[in-house]
Amino acid sequence: MDLLAQSFEALYHRTGWNFSVFYNAWEARKYADGIYVAIELALWGLFGAMLLGTLCCFLRLVRFAPLRWLVTAYVEFFRNTPGLAQLYFLFFGIGSYFRLSSYGPNGEGPVLSPMQFVIIALSLQYGAFVAEILRAGIEGVPKTTKEAAEALGYGRWGALYHVIMPLAFRASLPALGNNMAQIVKSTAMAYAIAVPEALYVAHEIWTEHFNVIEMMNVVLITYLAIMWVFTLIVRQIERWLYVPGMGR
């Protein structure tokens, strides 16, 4: 590691290319913390989106029409508006109005941190996409399979839980993987409300050293590496859940 740091420092003195994050220990630690925050945002966003999307998918199947309409309105709103606008609306709009993101009159701290607002925004936005993906997966299960489940004595919800949803989830996995990849990349919008993830930390570094080009390359490579690891995980899950006859 010392040799690598010395190499990058020598590169800076020789060419002017300042990858300070690789030879300055304090900045390296700070950037590593930013990567950790980005990964944490992605994991919590993935969990929230899957939980919310699955819940909405089930609620769309209930017989109470107003509840179905409410879920449909949520899905359409969050699928058709920009993620950054949603984050601003939650943080500066709802958060400020209900004093969730601002200090109280007596100096009380905010109820929710900026990081929590980003997690909520990611969960709401991509939960809407998960709901649509799972709905399409359920509709893609052959009618004969549903009839076979009923013939075996399963009720409506029993057939859904034990037969239809496992098949629908498997069929939806490629689309879910793509949606999850979007969540990982969308963590960068946390920069907009000063959450110290990778892009925000890189901005702080290039503001001090004026090495914008170098740090932007580092950020892009960082996200490429995260996405590469994530893609490997999704492919492994697809292998585990492979069902003969349903394609790969």
Automatic annotation (TrEMBL):
Q: PROSITE patterns from the xrefs?
A: ABC_TM1 (PS50928)
Membrane topology, from the record: Multi-pass membrane protein
Which BP terms does GO give this entry? amino acid transport
Q: Does the keyword Chloroplast apply?
A: no
Keyword list, A-Z: Amino-acid transport, Cell membrane, Membrane, Transmembrane, Transmembrane helix, Transport
InterPro entries membership = AA_ABC_transptr_permease_3TM, ArtM/GltK/GlnP/TcyL/YhdX-like, MetI-like, MetI-like_sf
GO cellular component term of the entry, any: ATP-binding cassette (ABC) transporter complex
What is the designated name of this protein? Amino acid ABC transporter membrane protein 1 (PAAT family)
Q: Which organism is it from?
A: Chelatococcus asaccharovorans
